[in-house]
Every structure is written in C-alpha cells, then in structure tokens.
Protein: Indoleamine 2,3-dioxygenase 2
Organism: Acinonyx jubatus
Amino acid sequence: MEPQSQNLKTIPLLSLGRFHISEEYGFLLPNPLMPLLTCQFLQSYREQRLAHLVLSFITMGYVWQKGETQPKEVLPRNLALPFVEVSRNLGIPPILVHADLVLTNWTTRDPERPLEIRNLDVIFSFPGEESLRGFILVTVLVEKAAVPGIKALVQAVNAILQPSQNSLLQALQRLRLCIQDITRTLGQMHDYVDPDIFYAVIRIFLSGWKDNPAMPVGLIYEGVSPEPLKYSGGSAAQSTVLHAFDEFLGICHSKESADFLHRMREYMPPSHKAFIEEIHSTPSLRDHILSSGNGQLLTAYNQCVEALAELRSYHITVVTKYLITAATKAKGRRLNYVPGPPLALEERGTGGTVVLSFLKSVRDKTLEAILHQSD
C-alpha cells in the first residue's frame, strides 16, 4: 500500500479559476453584460437572415416590454450597432419585418411529414402562446400556398416573351387556383388565433415606430444616429406575393395606396423586390390579351382578377374580426394581459396604415382591372 503523501501528489492543487469562480466576485459572473456583438463571423446569406431574425425579436421585446404606453425611446448600442450592421448587409431595415417574423421563423417537427400546421413550429416567439404560433404559422402556410402561383407567373411571362397561348392559358388557370387556395389557407387563422389575444397581446410586438402615435418621434439607435429613426412595423403588405400578382395582372392602385405599397417594398429582401421589378418590366399581360383577341385568355385573366379581389375581400373580414371588432370588445372590458392600447392605434395596422380604408381601396381597384373585349 502506497503512502498517503504519494497519492496527494497526484491531486491538483485547488484553485477557484478551474471552476469559473472569481477571486473578487465569487460565484457571481463578473461584468455579465454582453460584449459588442460582431457580424464578421456570419459567412452566408442564411446566417445573416437568422441573425436579423434574432436581433429583431430582441429589439421588439425590449422596446415594447412595458406595452404601448411606456415604449423604450433608446435602443442600447450593444443591440443597435450589430442590428444595423446586419441590416445594411442584407439591405433591409433594422426592425422586425415580414421576412423575419414569417419567412425565416419556421421549422418542421418531422421533415418527412407534410408541411401542415401540426408539423410546424416557430423558432422565436413573443407573448401570445398558441395564438402567436398560429398567427405566424398560418401565414407561413399562406406563403407556401403561393408557390404554384409564383411558378405560374414565371411560366406566363415566358409564354408572352416566347409566344405560346396554350402555355399562357394554362399559367393563368394555375394562378387562379393558387389564389383561391391562398384564400382557403388564410381561413385557418380562425382556427388557431384568438382575436382578443392577437389584439391585446400580440399586436404590440409587431408595431413599429413610424406613423405610430405611441412613438411619434421614432427610436434612437444608440451609436448609430443621434436623431431618432422611424421604421414601419411588420405588415402583410411586406409580403412579396401580392405585389408580384398585382404587377403581373396590371392592377393600378390609388396614389395613396400605391405609395404605401411601394414603401413596403423597402422592407423586403432586395432580391424579392427585384423579382417584382422584373415582372413590372416585362410586356403588359393586359395588352397582350387584348391584342390577341383570344376569348379564353380574357376569361382566364378575369377569373384571376376576381379571385384576387375575393382574397382581398376575405382579408378584410379577417382584419375586421382581429382588429376592429376586437378593439370594440377591448374598450368594453379591459384585458389583464397588458395595458390597454391607446385609442389612436385602434384602427391602424402594424404597418401604420388606417387599415380598413386601405384594404377596401386595394380590393376595389383590383376589381376595376376586369377586362372587356371592347377595352
């Protein structure tokens, strides 16, 4: 048996450093605030999109943590500087946008199973629990439902550039079916999102600091600008889908609506905005159909326009339920989840529009695009 003194020689001397214990602070983590984050190690486009998602959620949670009555006026430099840096790299504003909340913020539970809401989950979340999850994921499914329509646009444009009336007719028929499927998919919102929770809890975290009476001067991004900056909140108008459909079908909106919609394009990834602009630069579908004298093409075009107007009408009913009616109910019985929203916000969307008048205008202008053989 070896002497005890020899065994002790093999045991390392006890030190606090080996256990991440500070000589000065003990078990406390010294200076626990994060160092300034750097974007230099973000190698790919996907990594930068994910970084923007993370930073946008932290930002919205920080600014609105005490509700609309006490928003933060300054975004700390440790958050503001990396957020602005990654935003400039991506070409999108330093605020939560549709490309964050929806396009980047989803994952499948089982990659082998179909892309349906029971097999989906969000990556990041705000207060709102299942209603927030439903709001995000139904919108994810709306974007997925649009895929055949996006492909149909490409087919149709190419059928005009390299004339093929049969291919164009087929593309228009596919587009109509796609728009109708988008409308049906949007209907799932009623199954998964509670209007009271959306209005009183969720909506605040999607709100921006432009055209928002709760933050009339905007938000100071510390270390970026001494003056407050103004950015619109997340909005369905930041989705590329309906912009692309409008450009392809030649829908002309009122100046006020068109100005807002074009401003929302600045909140899209630049490549998505470029897709819309590419469609805009192609030969006019309406002129092509009228000059062709093809009655089948004219009918198929009008069916697309009617389906798009029906989608917009349905969107109005959804917004009425989740914003207008919910606001009226909230006045009557203040919910305990968060402080009641200011009266000035009750009829505004998170993007800052007076929402119903805007939606009705774009719906009515869509219907005006119906073609007649004598046009």
Notes: The first strand starts at residue 74 and ends at 75.
